[in-house]
Amino acid sequence: MLAGINMIAVLGLSLLTGFTGLFSFGHAGFMAIGAYVGAWISASPASTPAGLGLPFILAIVGGGAAAGIVSYFIGRISLNLKGDYFCIATLGFGEAIRLIFNNVNRFGGARGWPGVPGRSTFLVILIADVIAILFLANLVKSRHGRNMIAVREEELAAQIAGINVFRYKMISLIISAVYAGVAGVFFAHYMTFIQPKMFSLTKSTELTIIVIFGGLGSISGSVLGALVLTALPELLRAFEIWRLVFYGAAVILIMVSRPKGLMGGMELTPSGIRKALAERNALREAKTKLLADAQSGEED
Amino acid sequence: MKKLLFAALAIALVLAGCSSGGKSDVIKVGWLGALTGDQAVWGENELNTVKMLFEEYNAAGGIDVGGKKYKLEVIGYDNKGDPQEAVNVTKRLTGQDKVVAIIGPNSSGNAIPMAPILEKAKVPDIATVATNPKVTVQDGKVKPYNFRVCFIDPYQGAVAAGFAYDRLGARTAAVLYDVGDDYSQGLREFFKLNFEKKGGKIVADESFNSGDVDFRPQLSKIKAANPDVIFMPYFFKEVALSANQARDLGIKQVLMGGDGWPSDQLISMGGKAVEGSYFVNHLDYADPAVQDFKTRYKAKYGKETELNGFLAHDAVLLLVEGLKKAGKVNGEALAKAFEGIDVQGITGRIHISPETHNPEGKDAAIIKIVDGQYVFQEKYAAQ
Amino acid sequence: MVQFLQQLINGLSIGSVYALMAVGYSLVYSIMNFSNFAHGGVIMLGAYFGFFSLTLLKLPFVAAFLLASVGTLAVAIIVERIAYKPLRERKAPFLYFIISAMGASILLENIVIATIGPTFRTYPEVFSKVPITLGPLAIGRLDLIIFAISAVCLTLLIFFIEKTKIGKAIQAASYNVKACALMGVNTDRVILTVFGLGGFLAGVAGVFFGMKYTVYPQIGNITTKSFIAAVFGGLGSLPGAVLGSVILGTIETFVAGYLSSQFRDLIAFVILIAVLVLRPTGIMGKVTEDKA
Q: Where are the domains of chain A?
């Protein structure tokens, strides 16, 4: 179940990182916003800290929207920064958000907010996951999605081609933030307890690692990555200590040997598999042709 | 390469999934606490105590519940001293392991968020050294599945304040506390309340975040306020660090603390900095009532037991008595049985009040650190 | 006034520790143009190396200190070889370096947790805890020593970079690695040297941090602040890193002392964001080429 929740956040981050090429180390901050706003909307007024006691669906919408709005402001400030400065900025924002929540005693401050209603059932998360995947898949295939990929590949060229780079980066950021916010709402209603330190740099990094592990630019990769990397540790509790060691080593290995990750650029759909096979065949043909050309060239 | 890895993992998954089936005539009891992290010393101590006592019961043939003999089995998990992990572990204990009751944790910050899950699963929990009132009573309502065997912070704060004012003659006090921990917040609140009620004045009230290691800014302010005594209601690691830094800054005042202090590491880390300090504890280690347990523990584990061991011991006593009173191995019945029960523990008489689920009228002991040893001063009851 | 001065001393005390850590970040950034997040892990290992040298091997302080720093020097170079060199050779986009760095940092932190254990350790008392008092002000002895040794290390470093041949090579490489290689400089060796230097300083910083506070696997997280200090001072500039660290440490202390200690960490991140938005090159940073 936790995998399903992480999946939503990972999918959102995948849009930003995998498809638009922007790395973020602050997405846990958006999850935090979603979690706290969502908790505030749905917690009963009788609990401490108190909430508004409104229905769950409002919490989902509210949490996601809040995260999206905040991301707009963050985007305005930081999307103009180059490459790794943007990364650092997201890191800064993510941590700043966490620290701010640490100080808001109305929401429990650093000690956390227990007693959030446990509304995240398996069914609800499953439905949410499906919606999230479908929406994202459609987006990626659309013109907007292709524009984002263009931005990732070569920003300068995309700009020359007339794509409003800033606008697409912003859209990508907002959508990814909304996803993360919604994931945060589900998280809060699953744990029934939230604390700012649950949304730290470590969590942001974990999300980014899952996206990379699953493969940049692949939705099914992100889905698989989220399932495998979240569910596995729970089942292998005995090896819990080594989980993060494994993560760290895996990241280095992936970066060094196969930065495309598990399914970089490929999808686990019929058309995706066909495309991958076609690519491989084309590559093979090209190689044989080159060899043949070279040989015939020698014979001359 | 990746395929092999996944295959291996899949096999491991299957193996891990096949847990041992439940044996009949065994009562499964859960335990959670810090086995890693700052408070690992205490967690280890508690788990060892529970294991030792269960072994002793089982060797004697088990315990008698409702006419049938049962062996006791403890399933212990590490909550890493983290509330989120505590919640995870509680879910696991009640959901997968299906324990009838849980012993621990020792920290209020970890105990408080467990309540909703306990209620849903109808599994009672006996906290060992969690002293914040919110663990059992919140907003005037008692939590049906939370209990404890120790005194609570309103009492502890009153004891500390009373001792400072009456015995040490302090008229002004400074407080430094951890804003990220329920225990620290609560104890600070109650100390302030009681100290001011007696007529004293709080001249400095500084806070830090859990995990901070540098307290100099706050300590400099405290020094400038020149209090008679400095109250440090948090755990031994930060106490040692802040005590050292305080002395570094030239602060000479007497330091005081609560039950978060006692640990060998406090002396080894704090050394001269904590010499001559006082703190409130749950019992006198030299009390004859606890010597037998101390010897048994040392014989089995080769080291001295800490504060937590004594309270874990009494938690086990409470559990066993509760089971006998309930007559059946059922969480809901057990919780009802706890209310009003009266057990003579080694730390004192434990009479669980039905209204608050706390033991009524437990004494507190004042300990002074002299030459690196904990020296009992007196049993102090708040007036 | 006394309070002000005392807080100033406090700020300098923590600032000097940040400075040692920040210089390592800046050095690597100046050559490789990316932020070596694994640096935190190396610092943490320095603290552990020093601890074990003092307790297990029972070496005298100076020997333990040097052993720890040499140890971290080695670790830094190993990390470079494993996590960065292959990426360099494949001319991977720099973002991959950051991810790899993060991976290395997580790896280091958790290997220690898994093997040595996550409980904190305390250094045996090497210097007296009695502070030196100047009237109402108190300066810890350890702080003075940290300040002194940091100053010495940094001066030596700057001397090294300005006056020696390989130092000049480092300077050249920091402007343009490719041109440098074209001029016949063995850039691989330059990079090794830079990481080695950074690693050595990390060891020094780690040991001091461990002595001042305690040793635990998450020390790497504190170094995020020193990273902010390096950005603040200007990534790529050594004097900037020092200046940034000292100023950050002081601002942090004043905020904690005069406003509320709650905002202590927050102010560091606010500064970071402000710097990035208003003046990304920091106080003294060099202007790097466009990263489009």
A: 2-214, 269-300
